[in-house]
Amino acid sequence: WVVQLINLVTGNLDRVGGALCTEPAVDLVASTSGGHFNKWQSRVSGRPEYGGELPVSALAEEMLTEGEGQIRALITVAGNPVLSTPNGRQLEQALDGLDFMLSIDLYINETTRYADLILPSTSALENDHYDTTFNLFAVRNVTRFNRAILGKPEGALHDWEIFVGLAKAFAEKTGKELKPTMPPAKMIDMGLRMGRYGDASEHKLSLATLFDHPHGIDLGALKPNLASRLKTPNQRIQAAPPEILADLARFAALQAPAADELLMIGRRHVRSNNSWMHNFHRLVKGKPRHQLLMHPDDLASRGLADGQRVRVSSRVGQIEVEVLASLDMMKGVVSLPHGWGHARPGVQMAIASGQPGSSANDLTDECQLDELSGNAALNGVPVTVAAA
What we know:
The protein is α/β, with parallel strands linked by helices. It has helices spanning 2-9, 59-64, 81-84, 88-96, 159-174, 184-194, 207-211, 226-229, 242-252, 281-284, 296-301, 350-353, and strands at residues 37-41, 48-50, 73-77, 100-104, 117-119, 129-130, 140-143, 145-146, 217-221, 262-265, 292-294, 309-313, 318-325, 333-335, 381-387. It has two domains: 14-229, Rossmann fold (3-Layer(aba) Sandwich), CATH 3.40.50; 255-387, Barwin-like endoglucanases.
């Protein structure tokens, strides 16, 4: 919010050389009427919905808290929330107590080991792919359709075919009518034809056009367009939303950590891509990247040595990990990367399970939240560090 305000007051919002919006070929922004916030709340802690979704910080409590509306079944799709959501140990407990869990996934990982049924879809190289998300953040307007490299194995299903099969099963069980299904490629073709570069434009974009351009098409530089893309009721920028202004008092009152505490922040590595890439030798070989980074002065004041195994503790748990002295860290701050901690019972990923490291999210607190959005604070987590 503050960054965008700075762009606004300095004249750099919606200006060439400043912050500009994309105009993608398949435009998810143009096709919607705008989002909504806090139309309903979560059952247990009253967290606000946003666009029909709840923050994942509310997931475990919705499973563990008894009463009407308690979540007793779960479907995960290519996700690993045990490693990627706050207080992963609490989520493990919640998953273990479900009546039924289904996972659409290729691996038995830290999360899917709790599933009663795993349905593997085709792999990435056996899928077509069109990016509807990251084209919204591109630095030029581009479009590309990636056709599958490998054929679909006999008997295999794409993930969307699995979803349709599940929908049919639910419809038959409940007696509800199932709407006709449009294959993803046909949906993309329709989106391209109806978009600003489609049938009514000089580009005449369609799926067939993209088949003829396997490396994609550059649709031109970004240009000022914010006025036509705003979804606010009065089509004006809401520079001072009352909800954010009201929340500033809480922000100003945040307390400094105790004298023996450090603030833990996260860290991401290109070769990890969250926790997805750790079961591939070429991406985990070489210099280890799982360590806790810590300023040498903080190490010395605690009687710790570079490379030593340490115990990191927070309000919700503790882990053990190797510490690495780093002048890149500010005094009082430590950094632990996201997505490690694969050596857990039941995980069937031989390469990943052999990697050292622990999950930073075993220390993050599902109760340490941004009150406005309900999102968990994964940075600035108060921790103590001592010899293991």
